[in-house]
Amino acid sequence: MTDRQISLFSTAELPGRYLSQEPTLEISQEALQSWKQRVWQYQQEIRRQPSLQQGSLFGTEPSAADIAEEIDPFRLPQQNIEFWRWKAPDAGVAALYFVIDHELPIVLYVGETIKANQRWKGEHDCKRYVLNYVSAHRSYQLPVTVNIGFWQQAPTATRSRQTLETALIDKWRSPFNKENWEFWGTPFVGGKA
User: Fold this and answer.
1) What SS3 class is residue 151?
2) Coil, strand or helix at 120
3) 3-state SS assignment for residue 110
4) pLDDT tens digits, 104-124
5) Whether pLDDT at 13 is above 50
6) For the residues of 35-87, what is the DSSP string, one character each?
7) Nearest CA among 94, 79, 92 for reference residue 118
8) What is the distance between the alpha carbons of residues 168 and 67, in angstroms, rounded to a whole number?
9) Mean pLDDT within 154-182
10) Distance (Å, rounded) from C-alpha 152 to C-alpha 92?
């Protein structure tokens, strides 16, 4: 028997206690910086040397890949990543959007929506990835500036918009998009937002 009195308000002292903790994201500062550097180098190469697209002699509609070449996510007006929490006068328009860390800068995620002002209300896995990404930076006092930018000339037809989204995901190899996890790994996917 113990001579200590157990506090009524602390479960930490109880034997066999149940701890409810969120899993913590473990990534070293070196691994974080190396990961970002690899993504940045790839995307900088894309910016310097846009891919060559086969032109058409007959003046047909531009392909999704042609349009993707014209969109520069780094030149879009940026807004706070928490934009979805604010009241908006309407649901918004069809758009493609880019989650970008402007500190390096790198495109982290490419998405599409029919209603730009409502897309991130509710569940969205990318919110968790961004939270984990920012948290990893904060734990090492590293600068991070994650924003979102919308390209509002996106097609209103869902299939066309999704085709363009796929072309942009392929072009930028945005690491938070599942299609690119094999290239960059998934260091920010764990945990809950």
Assistant:
1) strand
2) coil
3) strand
4) 999 999 999 887 766 666 678
5) no
6) HHHHHHHHHHHHHHSPPP----TT-PPPPHHHHHHH--GGGSPEEETTGGGS-
7) 92
8) 9
9) 95
10) 9
Residue 69's contacts (CB-CB under 8 Å, 6 or more residues apart) are 50, 51, 53, 171
pLDDT category, 16, cuts 50, 70, 90? low
Tokens read off for 157: 């037809």
C-beta separation of 150 from 97 below 8 A: yes
For 31-53, how does the pLDDT look when each residue is reduced to its tens digit (9 = 90+)?
Answer: 999 999 999 999 999 988 755 55
Six-digit token pair at 31?
Answer: 């691994």
Please choose, from the candidates 192, 141, 187, 165, the residue with its C-alpha nearest in 3D space to the C-alpha of residue 31.
187
Largest Cα separation within the chain, whole Å, is 91
**Nearest Cα to Cα of residue 189 among 20, 34, 23:** 23
The tens digit of pLDDT for each residue in 65-92 reads 888 899 999 999 998 777 666 666 555 6
Give the CA dihedral 128, 32, 42, 174, nearest 10 degrees: 0
Question: How far is it, in rounded angstroms, from Cα 111 to Cα 96?
Answer: 6
Three-state SS at 132: helix
CB 126: neighbour CB atoms within 10 A? 23
Q: List the one residue out of 188, 193, 191 whose CA is nearest residue 27.
A: 188
DSSP state of 155: -
